[in-house]
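Our preliminary data section would be incomplete without showing what the modeling component actually yields. Below, a chain of 149 amino acids is followed by its predicted structure, encoded as tokens that our downstream tools consume directly.
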Amino acid sequence: MTLSISLLFATMIIKMSDLGKYHAAEHMTDLSFEYNGSIELIDVAKHSRVHSKCGTNIVVFVFLFNLLFSFFDMNIYISIALSFSLAYEVFQIPSKYLKPFLGIGAIIQFVLFTSKPSSVHLKVAKASYEALIREEENYRNVKQNNPTD
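Predicted structure:
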């Protein structure tokens, strides 16, 4: 019940603001970089706003584990902590058996947590991704120059 209320609250905030559009733009930019090696707006705009590595997919597993633990006489905080911990671990397993659950996560992403972004949202996502790439390059350079750190 607590998780359902939290999900409803998050959905309302995301749908009533631009967060869903920025979230979608982030997914589209990441997918474009993963598959094309490009984050040019023309390439980014071709990609889906649903991403298989989105944390929304973890929520599906959190709900399933929480439902399972609801059958046991257990402290709610322990139940939630275990649900999140196990959901994260299951989410890391690459398996064809998880695809139906990821499909549920994709529907949730599309309907509740992402909205069609405008070019402004895509430009912000591109700028953020470019900054991330620069920082990763700087980190690699520092790491190469100081191998003991």
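The mean pLDDT is 89. The longest helix spans residues 119-145. Preliminary results of this kind motivate Aim 1 of the renewal.
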